[in-house]
Batch of 2 targets.
Target 1
Amino acid sequence: MSVSNRILNLLFKMPKPTNPNPTVERDVKILMPDGAVLLADLYRPRQGSNYPTVLIRTPYGRHGLLPTLFPLPFAENGYNVLYQSTRGTAGSGGDFVYARDEHADGLATIEWIKKQDWFNGQLVTAGASYLGFVQWAVAAFAGPELKAIAPFVTTSDFNTFRFQGGTVTLETMLAWSTQMTEFAKTGQKLSDLLKQGKRRKVLDKAYNHLPLKEADREVVGKPSQTFQDVLAHGIEDEYWKPVDYSDSVKDVTVPVSLAAGWYDLFLYWQLQDYRRLREAGKQPYLLIGPWFHGQPSSFSVVAKENLDWFDAHVKGKTEVLRKDPVRLFVMGANKWRDFADWPPSSRSEKWYLQPEGGLSTETPPPSEPDRYRYNPADPTPAVGGNSLGVYMGPKDNRELEARSDVLVYSSAPLKKDLEVIGPVKAELYVRSSLEYTDFFARLCVVEKSGKSVNLCDGIIRLEPGSKQATPQEDGSLCVNLELWPTANRFKRGQRVRLQVSSGAHPRFPRNPGSGEPLGEETTLKLADQTIYHDPAHPSAVILPVVDA
């Protein structure tokens, strides 16, 4: 191991090597059936032989920081590792087309592995994000040599996660697509990473560009294919069928270990994969930590989790497995807790919006509604949350909550601890001056100091005839928002808070209010919004409360 890798191992607290200094064979050529040649690096333990093989396929290059996080921990602990650049990336032949070649190329690579003299007949797969999707693309089809998989912060459906509540995840979509347009062929170098500050400024300008379909040109000077495809093809479009392997999850027979983060952009969708496996009679492992996407502190925990998982299933070390399959980090308590299943048993508790910014379990009294004005020319900003970029994770929301376009409803200081674990929902009675508008709700914990920290949130985009809204007799609408899951212990003296607004830009694109198609918007209209809280309109946040 090089000095730099030793330093990175220490910084990331990666598992201690049992078989250090693996050999590395660079740029191994693997021929695909259509003639394209994909490149891979082969890591092998220096001592001994007859090792299982880990397949990791990546579109992000094979040099720099990434080997420390992905192939090295396995190679240093008794595994051969084939670390392959996907089609059209980092020297591999062909063109990179978002998620469409990973099934065929993955299976062809597995067939190549089976023919190698160092392959002992036992294969596992690992990797995060896109590296996790490529596992799902082959998991049900790879044959008996595949013994276990470990998808981390990812989903089997690489379409749906980019759409939420009737809108799209702008920040994630534009940042990732333009990054791949700029760096896919060569892989991102250290010098490129050092320029991220400049890239963020360019992205911030692009997020505000109208029409949105030109935003990618503001970043890379030309259209970025993945970004353009999302604008052109809606969530239900058949165009996305080749990038969705959710239907095959039920057919996966090998043991599956899932790892996620409470602030990760894939969290909701990864839990759908967990549920698909459970409904098919399987028992996957599930780990959810207090992480956003790519948080450095997550890698050592998950690397240890994956090593234990693989050691149990291909080396017979079953004693390393925990008794309960679900392990969750409960924020607030700051402890890991084990459960038999997800979600844990809980009771739904409604906390109703009250006049004068209150929040309680009591039904609201007769009261006048609250109002605010949403101005898409000055969109309500994103402050933390489940995204990909500088706006993700837990953040102090006090500056956001001071804006006139954000309503805040807070409980009295709690007299005892309140533990919330599971999916959170909001049921809001609303009215808008426009037919086309958004509503955004967010659950926060308010510390004794007054600091307000986001836990989970959700958005809904409304238009005429929207199925997400139920018309009321007085002309108001009842809307139901999924605020995504969380696990938090609200401590005695802290407060529960719900924010209500009409956006989180640039995490989601601002709603122009004009009804113009996504990407075509050039007209911005003010929206006057009304939130009701009275006996006939009992707006509430619904918490999954777990008794101690």
Target 2
Amino acid sequence: METPERQVTNRDVAERLAFMARLLEIAGVDRYRTGAYERAARQVERLSLPAAGLDEEELTRIPGIGVRIAGQIREIAATGTFRELEDLQATVPGSIVELLGVAGVGPRTLHTLWKRLGILTVDDLEQAVKGHRLRALPGFGAKKEEAIKRGIRQFRQRSDRMTRPQAEAVLASVAALFPDGDYAVAGSYRRGSSTVGRIEIVATGDRCALVNNLGAADAIAGENAEEVSLSLAGAGVNVRFTEPGRCGTALLCATGSRGFLARLGEVALARGYRLAPDGLVDSASGRLQTFGSEEEVFALLGMAPVPPELREDRGEIELALRHALPDLVDLHDVRGDLHVHTTWSDGRQSLEDVADAGDARGYEYVVITDHSSRVSPEALAKQQAEIERTNRRHACQLLSGSEVDIKSDGTLGYQNRVLADLDLVIASVHSGFAQDQDVLTRRVLTAMENEHVDIVGHPTGRLLGRRSPYAIDLARVTAHAAETGTALEINASPHRLDLEDIYIRHAKKEGVKLAAGTDAHRIGEFSNMRYGIVLARRGWCTPDDILNTLPLSGLLEWTS
């Protein structure tokens, strides 16, 4: 076993322990041992001190961690894993573990499929579903078989598109190839898309210098006089070279979208020009007019500059021609974060940590929204008292809130007497994702009718690349939000980015407030607010549409 190059974090330790629990369950080991590893993983995740820095005696003082697991945590700290996990991994085929990525297939289900039907791969599972062999197993039936069939379809539909943080990691490699900074990022990343396919770059530097620097790249897929296509960190990158004086149209064309460029081309033709990456070509004389910036192109066409986030052919060009585009919300308009978790539930940051982070960002407020399923009403009252004490030491004020579970019947995780004492309540679906659309939608509608519910959290439940949105009628939810005065969340976690821009814009049109929250569980995740604001901009939101652009007094008035 090799020694890890970086420091082992509590998250690393917890993930190894949780993985051990899953493997034990797949292998059919008794649930007592499985539960021991699950409990230990949760305890490590909640620790404020680095588990890797504790000795075995200190570790055994933590509830739920015995001598055996304490020794294994010390192994993880030294090597990144532990021997018993490696031995167990050798007995469970890796293809079986991959099946945990199929919705509806948990470790216990997987054990049955493996031992009773000999299923090892997703192809095996698909054939068993097609042959209706699953429904013959005890505890399965046609309904579960159909749910797994849907899960297989979703599993196969997963694309190689990157999340925005993944794209940013690739862009760090791009920056290393352009030390002089003579390039601009274009494509869907620049437009603020939730996921990104290829990285598009417009560069004004020396193409030969780039090619000579490509030792940092995985491979060159092809090159010509104007473009170089390469693979960086496993992602496709396309670099288009141009001169500084022609950068305006080059950046426009590389940013897209196709629909936007087609409409922009029509505007150019109506004024006697043809739009090309090198500039605007006079239709009569063939003379090329070049531009150093996008603003110059828009000005010549008699348009207001269209922000990249709006370039999706959804009416933005018509408004730009009338100089009537909305004044989009910006990150500096945000006065606080509405969705944050702490060590009181499943977060890894204390109240003091959160307040420090709020001060550092210049926020007026941060709402503490730990999960109702993990914080009893009695513990919530203690948290509120600690919030009051913490607020005396900080300019950023912590507000007492909760992310309350919407149960299967639409009731909430806390009783009304508890909800009434909170400054802000987010109601979220965290279970029962397989319910049909009408049932799940009515759950959410019922929750919204509770006078204490202020926001519906991550309304579609999606996890990018991991879980598709659950079946929910967002048109009904949005209409009911308008009736009840409930806000819909724009969850800024880059793994969620929920709502999508088309639903944000629809909510805006219906007069529904949007609430941007990071769902932060760690200090570093407060910066994810930028992803939520980009999504809000794609949904045409102005500062007035976003709940947390209000000052503290305005927010408290809105929730009262």
